[in-house]
Amino acid sequence: MWTARPVWAILLTVLATFVAAFSSAVALVVPASLPLWQRVVAGCATALVAVGLVVLWRRHLVRRPWSGVALSWSWRALGHSLLGIGVAAAAILAAQTACVAVDACAWVPLSSAGIPLSTILVSTFISAVLVQGFPEELLWRGNLTDLLGRRWGPGVVLLVTSVAFGMLHLVSNGSQDGVGEHVLYVIMATALGFACGAARLRTGSTWAAVGVHGGFHLAKGLVPAQPEHLAVLLAAWTVTLVVGGLALLLVRRPTRSRSHATADRP
C-alpha cells in the first residue's frame, strides 16, 4: 500500500502527530484550578486519539497486525517502561546537574509555583506520558518503525526516524530564542528520538521508548532547573541523551552458560 512507502509513511506520521497534539491542547492549557479528574480525562483523550489513528491506519490502509507496534500488555512491558524512564531520568538529571555546576542553570523548588503537590504530580504525568510520551512513541517508534522496518535495516530506521522526529520540532515552542537556540532545540529533539529508538531496538518493545520519552519530561517537570543560558542546557541534554541511547545499544545482555543452552535444546 502507498501509505507504507517511506516518504508517505513519514509524512502521515507527522500529520497524525499534529492531529494528536491538537487534541491535547485542552490538556496543555487548562487552568490548574480544574479538578484533577478533568485533567486526567483530557490526557486520556489525547492517547486514545493516537491509538485510534494507528488502528485505522494499520487495519484499513496497510492491513498489518497490531502486534507490529510492539505494545503488548505484560509484566515485561512494565520492566521495559521502567528501564526507559531510568535511562532518560539519569540523562536529564546529569545534564541539569552539570549546568547548575557551571552556573548555566538554577534549581527551582516545586513549591515555588504555589500549586498543590498533588496537582503538580498529576499534571506532570498527564503532560509527560499521556500527552507526549505514549501517543508520540506509538506513532514514531511503534507504527512508523514497523512500517519502515519492512524496507530498511534497523540502523537506517533508527537514523531516519530520529532525524524526522527532530525536524518535526522546528515548529515546537520550547522557550528558545534566536536561530541558534532553535537549531539546538531540533538537535536535542533528534537526540531524544535517538534514545527512544535505541530503547525500542534494544528491547524490541515500544514501551521502552515510551519510558524514555515520558521519563525525559517527568525528570524535567519534577526536578526543574531554570536555565540562565538555554543553549547550554539544550546542548547538555543532547549529549546525555545520546550517551544514554548508545549505552542502550552497546551494553550487552547477559548470556546463559553453554550447559544451560544445551539443556534447553530438544
Features:
single chain, 266 residues, two-stranded antiparallel ribbon, 2% strand, globular, disordered C terminus
Secondary-structure map with pairings?
Blueprint (H helix, E strand, L loop, with lengths): L5 H18 L1 H5 L6 H26 L13 H27 L3 E3 L9 H33 L4 H15 L9 H26 L2 H17 L2 E3 L2 H21 L7 H7 L2
Antiparallel strand pairs: 1-2
Helix pairs in contact: 1-3, 1-5, 3-5, 4-8, 4-9, 5-6, 5-8, 6-7, 7-8, 7-9
Protein name: CAAX prenyl protease 2/Lysostaphin resistance protein A-like domain-containing protein
Organism: Promicromonospora umidemergens
Pfam families: Rce1-like
Characterize the structure shown.
With 266 residues, the chain is mostly helical. It has one domain. 73% of the residues lie in helices and 2% in strands. It contains ten helices and two strands. The chain has helices spanning 6-23, 25-29, 36-61, 75-101, 117-149, 154-168, 178-203, 206-222, 230-250, 258-264, and strands at 105-107, 225-227. A two-stranded antiparallel sheet has the order 1-2. Helix 3 (36-61) runs parallel beside helix 5 (117-149). Mean pLDDT is 87; it is low at 255-266. The chain crosses the membrane at residues 37-57, 77-95, 107-131, 152-171, 229-251. This is CAAX prenyl protease 2/Lysostaphin resistance protein A-like domain-containing protein. Keywords: Membrane, Transmembrane, Transmembrane helix. InterPro entries: Rce1/LyrA-like_dom (IPR003675). Residues 122-217 form the CAAX prenyl protease 2/Lysostaphin resistance protein A-like domain.
